[in-house]
UniProtKB/TrEMBL annotation:
Top-rank lineage group of the source organism: Eukaryota
Presence of the UniProt keyword RNA-binding in the record: no
All copies of domain Globin, residue ranges: 3-147
Protein name (database record): Globin domain-containing protein
Signal peptide, first to last residue: none
Gene name linked to the record: hbbe2
Gene3D superfamilies named in the record: Globins
Molecular-function GO term, any one: peroxidase activity
UniProt-listed Pfam families: Globin
Keywords: Heme, Iron, Metal-binding, Oxygen transport, Transport
Length: 147
């Protein structure tokens, strides 16, 4: 079980209280699909993903990016038991979708970049440490079924 300090909890909750899901989610997922094009294979049903512009303007990419962020919101609300919260998603992604587990880390990095850009100078090293710890726990929970 992960131990969270009061400061870490406050930082994570503060980030989510200011989160623009409709902007951050689509931008983070689009960034992941552009920077790591091999991740596109899981999104074949999304249609045109042939170049950066088509990915950034794809409504299915945008919608799924919002879904991903709301999934992170679930983790924030259940910080004491993120692995249990994500048990079904871990099974889905490993057994049905066969997602390479490293892709969760890549997407987490893209989310961090977008969040950091939005937060600017307030994304201090202390904030980054708490945020990356949170995302590392989420990634671990999502990859639990793979172990």
């Amino acid at each position: 079980m992960v131990q969270w300090s009061d400061e870490e909890r406050t930082i994570i909750q503060d980030i989510f209280s200011k989160m623009d899901y409709e902007d951050v989610g689509p931008r983070a997922l689009a960034r992941c699909l552009i920077v790591y094009p091999w991740c596109q294979r899981y999104f074949a049903r999304f249609g045109n993903l042939y170049n950066a512009e088509s990915i950034q303007n794809n409504p299915l990419v945008a919608a799924h990016g919002v879904v991903v962020l709301h999934g992170l919101d679930r983790a924030m609300k259940n910080m004491e038991n993120i692995k249990s919260t994500y048990a079904d998603l871990s099974v889905l992604h490993s057994e049905k979708l066969h997602v390479d587990p490293d892709n969760f880390r890549l997407l987490a990095d893209c989310i961090t970049i977008v969040v950091a850009a939005r937060m600017g100078a307030t994304f201090t090293p202390r904030v980054q440490a708490a945020w990356q710890k949170f995302l590392a726990v989420v990634v671990s929970a999502l990859t639990k079924q793979y172990h």
